[in-house]
Amino acid sequence: MVDRYLFYRNSTWSLGKMASNLLHATFINFLAAVFLVPMANAGPAGAVNLIKAGAYETSKVCSNCHAHLFNQFEQSMHAKAFANPVFQNQLYDVLLPQVTGDPDATHRAGSCLACHSPTTFLTQGQHLPARNTLGESPPGVTCDFCHTTIGYLGLAPGNANYIPSPGPIKYGPLKFASDWHREYSPFQRKSEACAVCHEATNGQGVPMHTTYSEWKTSYWSRNGIECQHCHMSATGRLIAGSPVFESGTVAAGTLISPPAREQVFSHRFPGANAQSQLQGAVKLQVQSFPAEVKPGHTIFIGVELDNSEAGHSMPTGAIELRLAWLDVRLRMRGSEREWQLKAKPISPTRWDVAGMNPTDAALLGTAIADGSRLYRAIVVDTAGQQTLNNWEAVEKVFDNRLKAGEVRREMFRFTLPIDASGSLEAEVTLRYLRYPPGFVTRLGIAPADSVLMARASRIIEIAD
């Protein structure tokens, strides 16, 4: 968060890339792009504002003609990117007190707005507004910001290295023969348009948001499936390997007659906040061995987790916060007897089993049973301690998240009681949390509800 600059401080200048990214830019925009790089490199004293206040329309203005898309957008996390209480509390209550008295660090804290409220960042001197002056929170990621972004600087997108081009021309993914304010931009159809903010490295060079690079190495990337094909489709995911889009008109008004479109991009942008996006994203299968189970003998429960549907790791996003866990239980049918099967640590650091690290009790609380298999990434600070503040991370020491396209198999063992009889039901659940309970407790806000991503079960007969 703290090091999301508008442009990379040490980006490699690429005239060829610049030329391709600036096809739709005016001469003024080109000059701004050229001169912003050395100014950004100059530090706080050289950070100047080249975009005037009022250069961007509010999203409410767009609703006059695009009511349907606006209503979708208003419910999205893009619209709430600044108002999000987790973001605000971590920024104002944790980060700012740490950097008080350091002008350079305070300025870089303001650069969090480059992704969480980009129009504020671009038009208000790149300064973070004081919390007691917020009133109505600054806007999040607005319609006008996205539809006037024309590319990115450098060799790859990330760390808010977008090229802004505010003005009357709005760039979109649909080809129009003519339109009073729209120009077709292939960039709007590419994952790179998302990656400018959904790929980020902190000031210590630790990749903290890696959704784009996870997708880049996936099967979907190699086969032309972009972020928009899932996150701007009608269903929020692929159906039989292909996107299904909404249809209809993108605008309505008394003085306009836009054509009906077979492909209309949804503006709900479902992600980590949407249960519909998470439920069923990973598939589970359960097997048991041996085929004949006897009292007093050992049974093995195999679980297969299939992440071939998602185009990125699961979980993804803010790697220091997101986590998922696998809970495996055996129940004797017809009785109240139940046993939780404990996962064995595969990594020597033991970050992959709940309750096996000193921070787990405080962070996970009782939401995740000890012995559950955890899927998460761990970053540490200069003292080698786990941190949930991404600006403090100096190294990623663990990451066992399910990779895009990965099918992973887990094995659990259990010795049946000598008096076991009848049949057993093996039940496996995979759950997801946006952030651990202990994290939001420190911030003084309500914990996130866990989401049941997948459930599978199997009946096992016990031989006499």
Structural class: alpha+beta
Strand fraction band? 15-25%
* Total helical segments: 16
Number of domains: 2
Low-pLDDT parts are 1-49
Reported for the largest beta sheet, the result is:
6 strands, antiparallel
Number of strands: 17
Helical fraction equals 10-25%
Mean pLDDT: 86
| Shape annotation | globular
Kindly provide the radius of gyration, computed on alpha-carbon positions and rounded to a whole number of angstroms: 25 Å
Distance between the amino and carboxyl termini: 60 Å
Helices and strands in order, then pairings?
Blueprint: H1 15-21, H2 27-41, H3 59-62, H4 67-74, H5 85-99, H6 103-110, H7 113-116, H8 118-123, H9 143-146, E1 149-152, E2 162-164, E3 170-172, E4 182-184, H10 192-198, E5 199-201, E6 207-210, H11 211-216, H12 219-222, H13 227-231, E7 246-248, E8 261-264, H14 275-278, E9 283-289, E10 298-306, E11 323-332, E12 338-341, H15 360-364, E13 373-380, E14 395-399, E15 407-415, E16 423-433, H16 437-443, E17 451-461
Parallel strand pairs: 3-4
Antiparallel strand pairs: 1-2, 5-6, 7-8, 9-10, 10-15, 11-12, 11-13, 11-16, 13-14, 16-17
Helix pairs in contact: 5-6
Structural write-up:
The protein is of the alpha+beta class. It folds into 2 domains: 15-264, no CATH class; 276-461, Sandwich (Immunoglobulin-like). 23% of the residues lie in helices and 22% in strands. The chain has 16 helices and 17 strands. The chain has helices at 15-21, 27-41, 59-62, 67-74, 85-99, 103-110, 113-116, 118-123, 143-146, 192-198, 211-216, 219-222, 227-231, 275-278, 360-364, 437-443, and strands at residues 149-152, 162-164, 170-172, 182-184, 199-201, 207-210, 246-248, 261-264, 283-289, 298-306, 323-332, 338-341, 373-380, 395-399, 407-415, 423-433, 451-461. Strands 11, 12, 13, 14, 16 and 17 form a 6-stranded antiparallel beta sheet that branches. A 3-stranded antiparallel beta sheet has the order 9-10-15, with no helix packed on it. Strands 1-2 form a two-stranded antiparallel ribbon. Strand 5 (199-201) and strand 6 (207-210) form a beta hairpin. Helix 5 (85-99) packs antiparallel against helix 6 (103-110). The protein is globular, with a radius of gyration of 25 Å. Residues 1-49 have low confidence and may be disordered.
